[in-house]
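In this section we walk through a basic example: taking a raw amino acid sequence and producing a predicted 3D structure, encoded as discrete structure tokens. The instruction is simple. Fold the sequence below.
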Amino acid sequence: MRTIRATGAALGVLLVLTACDAKPEAAPAGPTPTVAAPSASPSPRVPDVPRGGDQTIALDVGGQTRTAQAHAPAGYQPGMPLVVAFHYYRSDVDVLRRMTRLDAKADQKGFVVVYPETIISGFNAMDCCGDYDDVGFVKALVAHMIEVWQVDPRRVYATGISNGADMTFRMAVAAPGLFAAIAPVSGGFIGSRTADPAFKPAKPVSVVTFIGLLDNADVFNGGLDIWRTRLGCKPSAKGVYAKGITWTRTRCADGSEVVDYQIAGMEHRWPGGTEVGLGSPETKINAVDVMWDFFAAHPRRG
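The resulting token sequence is shown next.
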């Protein structure tokens, strides 16, 4: 059973606690200085510089500073693909990085990975969380990576787990043409937004998804059926990846593909991840390896 969705009440408590915690304390009393102190001024924002390694990206989105963590291979150069990775609710970027080992895959295969940071520990995705403009933030972040880092706009991809997986589906609809393919893990095309028949991608975006049969599989597969129906997808192949792991492929009317992996015995986890967070190292499929091969085979057309 999926246990990390937030209720509106829980988010309300979180926001109240955050506001309380943010209340400034009175400065401690001290002796009057004999020399005038220099006037305080905010530290200038240090711009990110395209290069190998790790760094923070800070952007102004609607008058609010939003941040993301970026990793690029030591041999970084313009024209590399970009993967945007979304963490799950009540988690953070550090857990996602250690759980997935996406940074190591980026170093091996030569792509840039960027991890958006949330304001309330969750993204405003399909049925959770909050009302911040996370869609606008991700659009601005990808635009920044294309303009400043000069990543290849035809090879921009997204992945995430749980609430982060849901966010990949929302971005596929809300930002037509931004992502060539998405790889949701233990998440789905779910929630009230899907009730609108017009809620579907306006431009082709291929999907590879990983669903544990001990997770919320009926709901996730139901959402995937809605996605396929709206895009006119027809079955084209199916097979067995390993014992207890099957896959199906459908080709859609707009030229995109949907491939789903159904994983017996897996709960709400990241297959092939480390033991950090929701990682499932015992699962006989590595989501990062499989999704990267899928991404590499699905650049944006045209």
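Looking at the output, two observations stand out. The longest strand covers residues 53-61. The mean pLDDT is 88. In the next section we compare this with other chains.
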